[in-house]
Design brief:
Helix content is about 10%, strand content about 45%. The protein is mainly beta. The protein has 2 domains: about 35-185, Immunoglobulin-like (Sandwich); about 195-300, Lipocalin. A hairpin with a 6-residue loop joins strand 12 and strand 13. The longest helix is centred in the N-terminal third of the chain and has 17 residues, at about 1-20. The radius of gyration is 31 Å and the shape is elongated.
């Protein structure tokens, strides 16, 4: 039995070890043409602050990857164009004729580093330079605008590589991270969350008016899923106290879109809310709220110590 088993095992081993392809392809790997790409190492700054365009910038660290560890790179041209989403129309580009050259990196801008064998470069492009390159002024820029920066790598063999040279894996996969295009959004940071003292007057409704003024506190809580949106602890700012009623489970919110305030949502009875800013300075934000049941009031919300209302609220 042992001899038989050993013989069978030996036969199987001989059979598998003798299996091989009938064709041995002779692939000339050394003759393959190789390209180049720019791996994204750090996205230091990829947004423009609407309220501080003068100090906003695109800042990146890139690594040149090629068969010679980045030494084939001659220049990297950086182009920019501006786009805006027009509701009901679609994307509008500036300039409509194409991209504008805003910066050119030279071979000397790439240098060795201590983390890899490839050459790297770090560079910045100011928001003002990008705005000027597309023929606009800071006054022309709006919140949610986007500046598209497209890179073109030129090597010493006369070849060029850009966003149309790579597939999705090379552009977006973490190892390659080489999109050759970086979209920089104009954002409007908002920091209105907090609990504030308020005073309300001119309160009226179809159910009757509320004479004089009332005071209290209002809490605005940031909505995590919607930047710039804040739920309000009481959409009537205490007006219903005149009726002996309470806000309950109503859901009203105030939204900050680059300083333009709006009110939305509804109360527990289904009435929807809106607001109109009357005036705003560092100390007082004054607005009129209104719901679809005809209730309204004029509210003055006081800023907190050390945290004035942002300039430009409207």
């Amino acid at each position: 039995m042992l001899k038989y088993s050993f013989g069978l095992l030996a036969s199987v081993l001989i059979l598998f070890s003798s299996c091989r392809d009938f064709v041995e392809p002779n692939i000339p790997y050394t003759d393959f043409d190789t390209g180049a790409y720019l791996r994204t190492i750090a996205r230091t700054s990829t947004t423009f602050n609407f309220f501080d365009l003068a100090n906003s910038k695109l800042a990146l660290t890139l690594e040149a990857v090629d068969a010679e560890d980045g030494n084939t790179v001659e220049t990297v041209e950086i182009y920019v164009r501006h786009r805006r989403l027009i509701p009901g129309v679609g994307l509008e580009f500036t300039p409509s004729s194409g991209d504008n050259l805003v910066k050119t990196l030279q071979k000397s801008d790439f240098a060795p580093n201590s983390e890899s064998r490839f050459l790297r470069t770090s560079f910045e492009i100011s928001a003002l330079d990008a705005i000027q390159a597309v023929g606009l002024t800071p006054a022309d820029v709006e919140g949610a605008d986007v500046f598209e920066f497209r890179l073109v790598l030129n090597d010493r063999f006369g070849r060029s590589f850009t966003n149309t040279s790579v597939n999705n894996n090379v552009a977006g996969a973490p190892f390659y991270a080489s999109p050759f295009q970086y979209n920089v959004s104009v954002i409007c940071p908002s920091d209105l969350a907090g609990t504030y003292d308020f005073e309300q007057s001119n309160m009226e409704s179809i159910y009757g008016s509320c004479a004089g003024t009332i005071t209290g506190t209002t809490t605005w809580t940031a909505v995590a899923s919607t930047p710039g949106a804040y739920t309000v602890s009481d959409g009537t700012f205490g007006f219903w106290d005149c009726y002996g009623d309470s806000w309950g489970n109503g859901n009203a919110r105030i939204s900050d879109a680059c300083g333009k305030l709006s009110m939305s949502g509804s109360d527990k009875y289904g009435a929807s809310y809106s607001m109109t800013v009357v005036s705003a300075d560092a100390d007082n934000l004054v607005f009129q709220w209104l719901n679809t049941d005809g209730e309204t009031g004029l509210v003055t919300v006081k800023s907190n110590a050390g945290k004035p209302w942002p300039a430009g609220l409207r």
